[in-house]
Amino acid sequence: MPILPKKKSKKQQTADARRKRRDAEPQKAATFFETSQAVSFGIFLLMAFLIIVICFLGQSPAGPPITPKQVAKVRIVADFPFSFESKLETERARQQRRQRVLPRYRLDQKPFQEFSTAIDGLNSALETELMPELANLPRNEWPPVIDQFTATYGAETGLTVSADDLAILLDKTTPEERASLLREGSLALRDVMHDGVFEQPASATTSMDGSLLVPMVVIGGRGDNIQSEEEAARLLNINLAGLGDDLSLSRALYRIFQKGLKPNLEYDVETTESIKEQAAAGVEPVHVVFLQGQVIVEPGNIVSLEQVEAVAAYREQLTKSAEIVWGFNATLVHRSVMTIVLMLCGILFMQTVFSLNGRSNRRFGLIATVLIINLLLLRVIQQFGETSFFGGNSSLLAMLPFAAPVALGAIVMAIMVGPRPAALITIAVSALHSLMWGGAIDSFLVSLLGGMVAIYFAREVRLRGKLMRASLASGLVVALVAAFLGFLNELPPITVGQQVLTAIGAGLVTGVIVIGLLPIMEHIFKYTTDITLLELTDFNHPLLRKLQMDAPGTYHHSLMVANLAERAANEVGANALLCRATSLYHDIGKTVKPEYFTENQHEGYNPHDELTPAMSALIIKSHVKEGVDMAKQHKLPDIFIDIIRQHHGTTLIKYFYSKACNRQQQTVLPLQSGTSNPPFERPEDVDESTFRYEGPKPEFLESAIIFFADAVEAASRSLKKVTPQSVEELVDSIFSARLDDGQLDNAPVTVAQIRKVRDSFCFTLLNMLHSRVQYPKDDVAKKKRGQSASPVPMQETQSAIHAQNPSGKRTAV
Predict the structure, then answer these.
(1) Are residues 554 and 481 both part of a single domain?
(2) Span 328-359, pLDDT tens digits
(3) Can you give the residue range of the structural domain that contains 334?
(4) Number of compact structural domains in the chain
(5) Stated pTM of the model
C-alpha cells in the first residue's frame, strides 16, 4: 500500500492555502491558550499560590491539633519561653482542696423519738391489754398469747419485739419495775445517740486504741463523741446491764432497745458542697512555665491532656507574637519551599512521562483544579479540629485524619484522563496532606495507598456503580491500615472502631462527591469520560431515535462505521469507546434531508437528477454543518462536534465534481464545432473548492480512524464481488487517495498506526460483507407451489439493489 503522498498541483496548493487561512482564524486563540508557555507559567504560579494559601496560611507553626491518648507523630519544641494558666492543673488543685473538706452531717432525732414513743405504747399495751388476759391463764399457756400480742403490736407500730424477751420481762418484773426499766432503757438509748451514730463504712480507718477514725463534722454537735453503730451498741449493752442483777433480764432489755439503735446522722449535701466550693475558690490559678528549647511533645509517646493544653497555649502565644504578621513565619516559609519543590517535581514528571500530545494547558489546568478542590476539602476537615466542638472531644479528634477524602483527586483524574495523571495527583495530595498534619510519614503512606487503590479500581470505570466501588475499596484499605495502626499503638478498641468506620464513610462520601464533580469538570475542561460515552451509546437517545426513524439507511451505515472504528481503535491503542460513540452520531446531519443520500433512497428515485452538480454538492456538504448544529442543540460533548466536523476532512465529492466537469465539456463541444451557441461554462471555470467539504481535516487519532472508516464502509457497498483481494484493493485505494490529498497533515498518526488501521478494516469488512452459499433446490416444494424454493443469495441481492440506482453509486460522500 503506498503511504507517501504525491506532489500536489499548483491549483490544489492554492486551494489548500486558502482553506488553511480560513480555518486558522477561529483556532488561533484556542491554540494559544492550549499551548502557550506563558499560560502554563501563569497556571503554575496561581496553583502554587492557592496551594500555600489553602494548606498552610493561618496554620499554627506548632502544627495541626494533636490528639490526646494517641501516639504523637511529630516533635514540638518551644521556640521561646512562655507560660500559661493551666486549667487542668488548677482544676486538679481545686479538686484536691475539695477532697480535704470534711463532710457535714446533721443530727436527726426523729428515729429515737419514734422508738421512744413505741416503747411507751408497749408499756401501756402490756398493762391494759396483755396482762389482764394473762392473769386468768396458767403460765404454761402464756406463750401463744404473747406470740399473738407481739405480732399484732408489731404490725400496728412497726416495733418488733421477740416473744421470748417479752415473756422474760413479764415473768421477772412487776408492773412498776417494768415501767421503770423501760423508762431507764429509753434514757440510756437517748444518751448513746445524743452526739450521733453513723453507719460503719466498709473500709474504715482505726486509731491506735482501736476506735474508728471517720472524718466528718456534725453541725451543732460534738465531733469527739460520734460513734459507729457497733460502738453505740456496745455502750448501750453496758448501760443496760447496770439496771439490774439478772443477766437474762439485761439481755432481754438490750435486745429490745437495740431495735431503736439506728444511725441518726443525715448528710447535709448543700452545706458540704458550699464549703467545698468556697475552699476551691480560694485556690490560686496554677501557671505552667516552658523554657526555650524545651520539648512540649515527643514523637512516639502517648499524648496527654496536659500536653494538648500546652500545645494550644503555645499556638496562642505564637499567634500573639510580634514575629508573626498575617500568618507568615519560618514554618510557613519552609512549607512553601517544599510545595514549590513538589510542584517542580510534578512538572518534570509531566514533561518526562507524558507524550508531546499529552502536554496541554487544558490538562494542566484540570490537574491544578482537581488538586485545589481536593486540598480545600482536606483543609476544611482539618479546620474542624480547631473548633471547640472537636477540640474538646478526643474521640472526634482521633477520627479527623481518617475522614479526609484523599482519593478524590485520584478517582477524578483516573476517569477523566488516565492512571498516570491520577498517580501524579495522588502523590501530590498525599505529600501535602502529610505536611498539613506535621509531616508524618505514616500519614503520607496511608494517603498514598488509599489513592493508588482508588486508581486501580477506577482505571476503566464506565458505570457509576463501579465508581462507588473504587471509592469504597479505597476507604476499606485505609480502614484496615487504621485498625492495624490503632492496635499497634494500643488505642482503645472503641477509638479504633470509630476510626475504621470513619475511613469507610469517607470512602463512600468521596464517591458521591466524584459523581457530582465529574459533569462539572467535563463541561469546564471539555473532557468526555467513558461514563458519558457509554451513556451516549444508548439507542434511546433522541438523536439516535431520530436517525433510526428518519434515515434508517444512514443509521445502519453508522452502526457499521462504529464496528469498523471500534476494532481499529483497539488495534492502535486509541479510545475504542470514543470511536464507537462518536461514529453513531457522525452523520446525524443527514436526518435533515435523508432522501438526498443514497443509503436512504428507495424505488430508484434520486432527487439529485433534478439538480445541478454544484447544488447537489452543497446539499451533501450541508449535512456536516447541520450535524454540528444538532449536536450543539442536544448538548453533545465538544469532541463529538469535532468529529462531526472532521469526519470528511476537506475531501472532494468526486461523483458530483466529475459530473460537473463532464457537463462543462459537453457545453464546450458546440463552440468547437463552429456553431454560434455560446458555451455554458468552460472546464477551467469549475471551482474544485465548491465540491470539497469545509473541513477541518482530522486532528487526532480517533478522528482519523472514523474519517477512514466512514469512507471505507460507504465504498464497500459498491463492491460487486467481495473477495479478500477486492477488499484490500478498495481499502488501499481510499487510503492512498486521502494520504495523497494531505488529509492527515494535521493528525498525529504514524505509518505503523495507518497500517494497523488498514489491516483491521480489511478483516472487519470481510466479515461484514460475507456471502452465503446458495441453498439447494427443493423439487418437491417447487411442484407443490409451482415456483422455485431457492432464495437469492445475499451477495446477488445486494448487487441488484445497487443496480437499481447506478447514478447514486455509494462513494466517499
Answers:
(1) no
(2) 566 778 888 999 999 999 888 888 877 655 56
(3) 39-61+324-525
(4) 3
(5) 0.67
